[in-house]
Prior knowledge:
The complex is a heterodimer of chains A (405) and B (102).
Chain A: E1 5-14, H1 20-29, E2 35-36, E3 49-50, H2 64-69, H3 72-87, E4 101-106, H4 112-124, H5 134-138, H6 142-151, E5 157-160, H7 166-180, E6 185-192, H8 197-206, E7 229-237, H9 238-243, E8 250-259, H10 270-282, E9 292-294, H11 301-315, E10 323-325, H12 328-331, H13 338-352, E11 354-355, E12 378-379, E13 384-391, E14 395-402
Parallel strand pairs in A: 4-5, 4-6, 9-10, 9-13
Antiparallel strand pairs in A: 1-7, 1-8, 2-3, 6-7, 8-14, 11-12, 13-14
Chain B: H1 3-17, H2 37-51, E1 53-54, H3 66-79, E2 83-84
Helix pairs in contact in B: 1-2, 1-3
Amino acid sequence: MSRRVVVTGIGVVSAIGATRDSFWESLVQGRPGIGPLLAVDASQFRFPNGAEARCFDPTGHFEAKTLDLYDRFSQFVLVAAREAMADAGLEAIPAGLRNRTAIVTGTSIGGQGTQDVGFVDIYRLGRPRSHPMTIPRVMPNAGASALSLELGVTGPVFTTSTACASSNHAMAQALWMVRSGMVDMAVTGGSEAPFSFGFLKAWESMRVVSPDTCRPFSADRKGLILGEGGAIFILEPLEAAQARGARIYAEFAGAGMSADAHHMTQPSVEGPVLAMNAALRDASLKPERIGYVNAHGTGTLANDATETRAIRTVFEAHAANLAVSSTKSMHGHALGAAGALEAAATILALRNSVIPPTANFTTADPQCDLDVVPNQARPAPIEHAISNAFAFGGLNAVLAFSRLD
Amino acid sequence: MSDDFAQRVISCVAVTQRIPAESITLNSSFEELKVDSLDGINILFALENEFSVNIPDEAAKNLQTVGDLARGLHDLIESGLATPQAPRPAPPTPAGESGSPA
């Protein structure tokens, strides 16, 4: 069995909007959500800024007792999923579909914030015991598990963790499970909540975080800006979605994966080329048909130049006609959630015929000689788009989406 | 820059790269020592601990040799740009009250 798969619901929590509509509005305005770190004492870091989801108020979504159970990264999953379900016109997963529905989420670090607090208790404050909710809050599958409880889903539920490609790997699995007939619906995406003191200290030592802002593809780029949030999508077979009269955002046309087998942190050209080609092949799309690439575009010197070469290798002469933007310039690098947030940006770009810009762009870099849609969103009737995610550890996953009229 | 200072820098490189200090001179290039970007941040980490300073990201770029690194670090410390490490700060307060899971 091979079925066409469509996206019928989207929910988003991010630094540039705690709902799908506000997220999209910020993207179109080219309005970054980057500002002084509030979750930690920023004076103890070489980088003072982050893309925190300040507009997200968990108390508006959860009872106090429930909040005790869920780390911030799980809260993002649940809130985004509720929005996606409502958006898809679903009050609940239909009873007959609950064991035929998959939940696949991506996260790089799960409940690291909770872990951080627990370690401070034990190592620093010398407390004799950790809070009993530490393990169920920290486990990377906590978001997926919480969602299965909330939706009553009894089908395949799991979480992928591949650093910055986590969500793309998750969504690819969900796509293929629906396409193959293994399940009849999927709730998929990912989330991340990286703003804890100990984890940020680890990022500081990597020396890849910008001291000011994120300027992907710009000659004066100084690194990435960490972000947080999550996005969740409802996937259904095309025929089922049409039969129930669902509004269809886009076709989830394909996905491709690869590994660099090169280096733990240095990017390569070859791995991303393999993943982009695999996604295009899976979607039965020739490179010339792609109109927009939502780039991995972290804003580090190495990534953006290397990704440019990879895109040029895949698209050859057509690279001159491609719009390529990095929305990380606005929502930050949300690590395991990056792919989910960027899939939302890509699908909404297809749906609305508007390409979100690369914000904070100042100066062209000859090593990034692509049309990076600097600073201003651009109306454009895109038919097909891909979204790149290239993780530390050399693991790559690319998603392809198509407009469905 | 004293010989002792240079030797401490060389020692940091040696320990990080797991090679004998005797195999390293100030003229050794990072290329010949097979120091890649990940090794580079490990060496900076070792130097920060050895000299009890914080080395800014920008100061660590475009260094070709161990001598470049040693002189750069020496100048940073002399000029006061490599900020001395603060005494261990009060317990950080990650989001939420310590002792609770929030």
